[in-house]
């Protein structure tokens, strides 16, 4: 199995500006249900940390699926205005999973 056959994990913290915390919570929360229905999405979780940061954890079947997700208009609009919502750049990570993930069997061509 090559790295391109393995699921992609994207995770990290976002620290909203205090005056925009509720708005960021609403926007991020609005992404959960639609994203979980997207082709190739294996997991999508949003957490709120006690210090006010939001933690996102996503797993995608492939880079292509993640790229398609990142091109959705609501997400593009949020990302294009990220500096107006956040106090600092996101503390994010993007990795190829090396542990088995049964739901991520390669799609037959």
From TrEMBL:
Ranges of residues in domain ABM: 8-94
Gene3D superfamilies assigned: 3.30.70.100
Catalytic class of the enzyme: oxidoreductase
Gene Ontology MF terms: monooxygenase activity
Alphabetical UniProt keywords: Monooxygenase, Oxidoreductase
EC number(s) per entry: 1.-.-.-
Domain of life, per lineage: Bacteria
Protein name as it appears in the record: Quinol monooxygenase
């Amino acid at each position: 199995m090559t790295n391109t056959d393995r699921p992609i994990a994207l995770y990290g913290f976002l620290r909203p500006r205090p005056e925009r915390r509720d708005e960021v919570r609403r926007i991020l929360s609005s992404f959960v249900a639609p994203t979980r229905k997207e082709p190739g999405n294996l997991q999508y979780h949003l957490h709120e940390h006690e210090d006010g940061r939001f933690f996102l954890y996503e797993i995608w079947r492939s880079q292509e699926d993640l790229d398609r997700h990142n091109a959705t208009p609501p997400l593009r609009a949020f990302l294009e205005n990220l500096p107006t919502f956040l106090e600092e750049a996101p503390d994010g990570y993007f990795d190829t999973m090396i542990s088995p993930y049964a739901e991520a069997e390669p799609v037959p061509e």
